[in-house]
Amino acid sequence: MWLPVYILLSWLLLATAVQEDSYKAQREEMVARQIKARGVSDPAVLHAMRNVKRHLFVPASIAAEAYSDGALPIGQSQTISQPYMVAYMTEVIKPSPTMKVLEIGTGSGYQAAVLAEIVKQVYTIEIIPEHGKAAAARLKQLGYDNVEVKIGDGYAGWEEHAPFDAIVVTAGAESVPPPLFAQLREGGRMVIPVGPVHRTQTLKLIEKKRGKAVTRNLMPVVFVPFTRQGQK
Ligand code: SAH
To answer: Among 102, 23, 113, 105, which Cα is nearest to 60's?
Structure first.
């Protein structure tokens, strides 16, 4: 009576372990081919990209594609960014273990998890309640205790936790929201895609120097739009 159950359970455990090993191998390959090969070299970023289980941040039906070289749909017309883009945006803010980082556009929570592997504390804001709730639950379940998710319009930032050492915006904005720049500490860095809605945007790196924005254009990118509360 118990033998078949035992055999079934053992088989399931084995199958899960084999699957996890395969994902681990896919992560190694993703880092080598998509990320290191394109110039991301910060060891902490590479380590984080190897560690975070991206397949748990995409819908189960497309888990097999989790480590492919592109953005993937996560529902409600939103996407999880391409792995390279996540790694690149993480590297340009020069992340370190003492930092407090604000992210706008939680989405699946993947970028927040990558940041949380490196920095001290991550605050992240998502405007679509279902995504925000699902991401918060996922991050909690995976043990990312240093991430706090808020549901709301990220345009206003998160005043009570400001100033931030860095701000990562993962939705394409038409211009830099002034409250976000205000909440960046002196010497802090913000990475943000800026450009017209539904067009190619420019990924910008903005540093706050003596209160002024020093901007560098990094590369053309396509992100889902930065929406405002009350908009569709
Ligand atoms: N960083 C995410 C990908 C984000 S896609 C990840 O790793 O999965 C962009 C996200 O920004 C979407 O979920 C979208 O709903 C959200 N968003 C758009 N405008 C926003 C705003 N004003 N405030 C907060 N989130 C916003």
So the answer is: 23
